[in-house]
Structures are given as structure tokens and as C-alpha cells.
Write a structure and sequence with these properties.
Elements: H1 12-40, H2 44-54, E1 56-58, H3 61-64, E2 77-84, E3 103-111, E4 118-122, E5 128-131, E6 134-135, E7 141-142, E8 145-149, H4 152-170, E9 176-181, H5 182-191, E10 195-199, E11 203-205, E12 210-212, E13 215-219, H6 221-229, H7 239-259, H8 266-279, E14 280-283, H9 289-298, E15 307-311, E16 314-317, E17 320-326, H10 328-339, E18 363-365
Parallel strand pairs: 1-14, 2-9, 4-15
Antiparallel strand pairs: 2-3, 3-4, 5-8, 6-7, 9-14, 10-13, 10-18, 11-12, 16-17
InterPro entries: LytR/CpsA/Psr_CW_biosynth, LytR_CpsA_psr
Family: Belongs to the LytR/CpsA/Psr (LCP) family.
Pfam families: LytR_cpsA_psr
Amino acid sequence: MSGTGDSRPPSGATALKGLRRRRRGLRITAWVAAGLVLVGAGGAGYVYFRLNGNIHSVDIDSALGNNRPVKLGNGSMDILVLGSDSRSGANRGYGHDSGTARSDTAMIVHLAKGHKRASVVSIPRDTLIDRPACRKPGGGTAPAARQAMFNSAYEVGGPACAVKTVEKLSGVRMDHYVEVDFTGFKDLVNALGGVPLTTTAAIADPKSHLTLAAGTHTLDGDQALGLVRTRHGVGDGSDLGRIQLQQAFLRALMDRISGLGLLTSPTKLFSVADTATSAVTTDTGLGSVGRLMGLAQSVRNLKTGRIHMVTLPVRYDPADRNRVQPIEAKAAMVWSALRADRTIPAAAVQGSAADKVDAGKVVGSSPTADKKP
């Protein structure tokens, strides 16, 4: 019997081609599965409108007016990220207030040209600053105030006043603003299957509902929120220590996101995107799925090791050690670096009160942070 088959093993090139086909087939299978899910939900149009409808955006441009720092035009981008602390609505589990809110967390995220490097500047909420006059969301004007706490800007004038205050403080124009509240933060952490990290010491703070033994943990949303809010469970109990914990958690969160392989799991990607778009409030310039996806795509190659996190250089207020004041000369070095799209020099933060706090050393990424749940 004559045969046309060849019993020889495939060559290296042939085997490589087969492997590539199998990998491509797996990717195609994943996206076909996603397509079936989307069709079952009403198609891609449903997904777009679902995610787009989740996003809450506010027009801050009219309230900011034209008297702002100039756009740099050097390819960099500056985003003010706020964590608001209203205890109204779904956030009541963390205390009660009149329904107003203050910016519990404030970070300037500077994406360098090409978005492969970033600087993050945390502004302590208790920093004493000169707050500009701001338009109130309900009408009228909040007068300018000297030596006001930084987080009061959001309370009196909402996100537009927070942006205006940061621009006055830094001389850097904010291209965008993003806000997350307590509930949105918890939901996002839970959608990711928790965030793995390691604590080098036990943390116990009943005020933030957090108890963690030393060791490796996968924090759920409530635990993660407790960690980024705790002041009394770690270090000297200061807001500067809390900021270091926030920065350490942010690194662990980014490691988690990068290790999940969302692009190979379209259903998981949709779940996370659905939660993330529901969790944030943005300016109108970012207030659509397309624009948020564009921003996410632009930072896809940004590695955790290329993100430099600092705290605004401050000293304790001699009259009240619960308040801090910017160290003007050192703060000027920070703002100058952002405007020039350069890395913030170490000298800018050396000698700052924040430089003497070591609460951030208690938290580090877990070896399991890059593994899927």
C-alpha cells in the first residue's frame, strides 16, 4: 500500500508555527466566548451603553474659568485623583455627617511623555494652604481663605474648587480629575478578587474597622478600605503615615491588575470594567468609555517600578501638630519637575516631615499578587 504521510517528527520551525496557531486559537476562543456572552446580553451595543451609562462626569471647566496655568503641550498629562469621604448614602458604615464631603485622599498623577513613566504627589489633607475663591455647586461663591485645610476646598466648592486649589498651590494645570468614594473603592477591590499583600507587623485599628496579623493576606474591599484609612494602627498615627500606607497599597493594587490577565478573560474584563466605571466620577473630558479606554491603553506599558511616589514636602505647624505647612523651597522643586516633565529629585523630599515617617514599610506586595484568583 502506497502512502503519502510522513512519519518524521516536525521540524523546529513547523513546531513553532503549530504552537503559534494553538496560542492564536486560544485567544480567538476566548474572544469568541466573550462575543457569545455579549450577544446574550444584547450585543456589543448593550455593553457600550451599559459601561458608558455607569460613568458619572461633571463639568468643571466653566467653574474654573480661564485664569489657569497654561497647558504644557509637552506630551505629559496631569490628573488630580481624589478619594472623597462623605458618610452619606452607602458610605454610612464609616460614620455620619451632614452629607457633605471632603477629599480624604488627594494625589496628582503626572504621566510623563509617552506614558511609560509617572510621578505621584500625595497632598496631605491637613495641609494649610491659601484657598482661592470658588464657585459653589449650588450657586454663590465661597470666599478665598488663608491658612485653610486643603481638604476643605472640596467641601466648599466640590471638585472644581479642589482642582482650582491644586493649580494655585502647584502652578501645574490639571488635565483631568478622577474621584472615587468609599463604596466604589470597595467594589473595585472585590471585583478584582481582592488584593494580595504582605504586612510585616500586625495592624489593629477599630476606628477603621481593620485587624490584620503580620503575614500574607488577600484583602477584600472592606479590609482594603480600612488599610488606606487607618492612622492609629501603624506608625505615629499621623496623616503622613496613612499616606505612605495608601501609596504602598496602590503599588499592590497595580501589581494585582497587571497580573490578572484581563485581556485573556473577556468576561472578567467586563466585570471589572463594569465595576470600575460605576466607581468613578470624572471631568467631562474623561467622561466616556472611549476616553477612559484610551487613557488605560496609553498606560499599558507603565510598570510599577517606573512610578515614583512622593508626598508634598511639609513641616508640622508649630501652633498645631495636627496640621502641616508646605516647605516652599522644596515644594517648588516638586512642581518645577512636573512642569518640566522630569523625575522629582530626591532633594525635594529630604528633610520633610513625611521623610521621617516609615509606616509604608509595614506593607508590601505579596508574591501572589500576579496570580489570577
